[in-house]
Design a protein that fits this description.
By secondary structure, the chain is an alpha/beta fold. The protein contains 15 helices and 15 strands. The chain folds into 2 domains: about 140 residues, Aspartate Aminotransferase, domain 1 (Alpha-Beta Complex); about 240 residues, 3-Layer(aba) Sandwich (Aspartate Aminotransferase, domain 2). The strands form 3 sheets. The protein has a 7-stranded mixed sheet with strand order 4-10-9-8-7-5-6, with helices on both faces. A 4-stranded mixed sheet has the order 1-2-3-13. The chain binds pyridoxal-5'-phosphate.
Length: about 375
């Protein structure tokens, strides 16, 4: 399949994955790998979680698809559960993170009658044309110049720069509460709240992109809950929401939702029964299996173990989205770790090893990973 590998870095992990069980993946030769990559921060429940499997298969037998043309009580239940979980008012279900951000940008621009978006340097918001317009990160954008929309980019975490970029042409400020692809970059404490205040001063909306950070990934329901005073007008979720099933959502306040007209935006597959059944199963499993606490426990282990390894400068991030910052390039370390049976990710920061383990990962597996990291990096070149 040359076309597929040309378009996406599918072969970054030099192993062909055949099956998975919990937090373990197996290659075609039957070798086991601890999955610290989590399918790019997707598989919050791991592989083949019994509740996820049961929800999907039961729903497939009951009602596999009907579009939004007909009311479906299951869709209402899933949307309500998602609003309760995220502490937002209205949910619009779609199929991918980029689609959720498209919906967010459309609703914000229309609600405000303005068209400028302020976004952050090194940020990533998806690969569709509108999302590329607000994405600063690397070559995702530059290869497709000129991209759509008018976006002002400011340094992440710099409230003064944000203030200088805001005026009455700005429809919304769009941010990740932790920049994932950039290298798991946390903003300074109070930054999200400052963004909220600065938006209010010019009457702009605040959109928080929680596609990577949300739905329990960071050890809390949503990462913006770390600073509740920032309460966004719009936020977007995906990845962990389906834990492997393609589903995402744009969530907004009652006031923003009231600006949308029926039929103005839609999606054939969005909010289909299978997706809704999975959303309910994922949210219930996070609560029933105490996955927020378990995610925070994994973070604590990572911070403690990372601090004791010479090659590790710092461990940053939250819950099950962690950046282990090394004193050397991360990519060769990630490759050596594959040979030792551990799959990890990298990021735009070349020294950052990105970990997105399932929240169900046994603590012993994370300890074994840090043993392997210490062994892998006792030798080799530091830069
Ligand atoms: C913060 C953020 N926003 C948006 C997206 C795009 O999501 P998707 O690939 O599901 O379109 C991603 C994907 O990595 C992401 O990390």
């Amino acid at each position: 399949m040359p076309a597929l590998t040309t378009l996406s870095p599918a072969s970054l992990l030099p192993v062909a994955i055949d099956r998975g069980e919990g937090a373990t993946l197996f290659d075609t030769d039957g070798n086991a790998y601890a999955d610290l990559y989590g399918g790019h921060a997707v598989a919050l429940l791991g592989q083949g979680h019994p509740r996820w499997v049961a929800a999907l298969s039961d729903q497939a037998r009951t009602l596999s698809f009907v579009s939004t043309v007909a009311p479906v009580p299951l869709r209402d239940r899933a949307a309500q559960a998602l609003c309760d979980f995220t502490e937002m008012h209205t949910a619009f279900l779609v199929n991918s993170g980029a689609e959720a951000n498209e919906a967010a940008l459309k609703i914000a621009r229309k609600a405000m009658g303005r068209d400028v978006i302020v976004a952050f340097e090194a940020g990533f918001h998806g690969r569709t044309m509108a999302c590329l317009g607000v994405t600063a990160a690397g070559s995702y954008r530059s290869q497709h110049d000129p991209v759509h929309g008018t976006t002002r980019f400011v340094p992440y975490g710099d409230a003064d720069a944000l203030a200088a970029a805001l005026d009455e042409d700005v429809a919304a400020v769009l941010l990740e509460p932790i920049q994932g692809i950039a290298g798991v970059i946390e903003p300074p404490a109070g930054f999200l709240t400052a963004c909220r205040r600065l938006c209010d001063e010019v009457g702009a909306l605040l959109i928080v992109d929680e596609i990577q950070t949300g739905i329990g990934r960071c050890g809390r329901a949503m990462q913006w809950h770390a600073e509740r005073a920032c309460a966004p007008d719009v936020c977007t979720v995906g990845k962990s929401l389906g834990s492997g099933f393609p589903v995402a959502a744009m969530l907004c306040t009652e006031a923003v939702a009231a600006t949308a007209s029926p039929g103005e935006h839609g999606s054939t597959f969005g909010g289909g029964p299978l997706a809704c059944a999975v959303v309910l199963a994922v949210l219930e499993t996070i609560a029933d299996e105490d996955l927020l606490t378990r995610g925070r426990a994994l973070e604590a282990i990572a911070r403690e173990r990372g601090a004791a390894i010479d090659s590790v400068g710092t461990v940053r991030g939250a819950g099950c989205l962690l950046g282990v910052v090394l004193d050397r390039p991360a990519r060769p370390v990630a490759q050596a770790l594959v040979r030792a049976g551990f799959l990890t990710g990298t990021a735009a920061d070349p020294h950052c090893l990105r970990l997105c383990p399932p929240a169900i990962m046994p603590p012993a597996t994370l300890h074994a990973f840090f043993d392997a990291l210490a062994a892998t990096t006792t030798t080799g070149v530091r830069t």
